[in-house]
Specification:
Blueprint: E1 5-13, E2 17-21, E3 25-29, E4 32-40, H1 44-55, H2 65-70, E5 75-84, H3 90-97, E6 102-103, E7 118-121, E8 134-137
Antiparallel strand pairs: 1-4, 1-5, 2-3, 4-7, 5-8, 6-7
Length: about 140
């Protein structure tokens, strides 16, 4: 059985895109590097595998805000940082990233009080300093 934990997706948006994200509506996502913070308390491995499959267009299900972004042909999921933990850390990590990243307001945080769980950043390397020991490189 897969362990619970928190993960950060390092995402490259290859050109400016406007996407409709469920009830959140239309959002302009500018070209650049983004970090999405999520948690999977029922098993982190299946969740990460699902995100990778979504980005490779191997699933049509759109359940979370991140699915709408990952399905775009102009979006590449480059890497995933994983931290196994029984404690739900996604809001704490999101708060830390908000100090260095620009939030996409309302994205991925409909079940909490965070401003966002998706941030435009200059790069993703700093995530390792937050105690994410596992890094998975994703190839298209």
């Amino acid at each position: 059985m897969s362990k619970p934990g928190t993960y950060c997706l390092c995402i490259q948006v290859l050109q400016d895109i406007e996407i409709t994200i469920g009830a959140l509506g239309k959002k302009l996502i500018e070209k650049g590097t983004y970090i999405y913070v999520g948690s999977a308390m029922n098993g982190i491995e299946p969740r990460v595998k699902r995100h990778i499959k979504t980005n490779k267009n191997k699933t049509t299900v759109t359940h979370w805000h991140i699915d709408y972004l990952l399905k775009s042909p102009n979006v590449n999921l480059d890497s995933v940082f994983i931290k196994e933990s029984v404690e739900k850390l996604e809001c704490l990590i999101s708060e830390e990233i908000s100090k260095v990243g620009v939030p996409i307001n309302g994205f991925g945080c409909s079940d909490c009080k965070c401003k966002s769980h998706l941030y435009k950043v200059s790069n993703c390397l700093f995530i390792e300093s937050y105690g994410f020991p596992k890094k998975i490189m994703v190839t298209k």
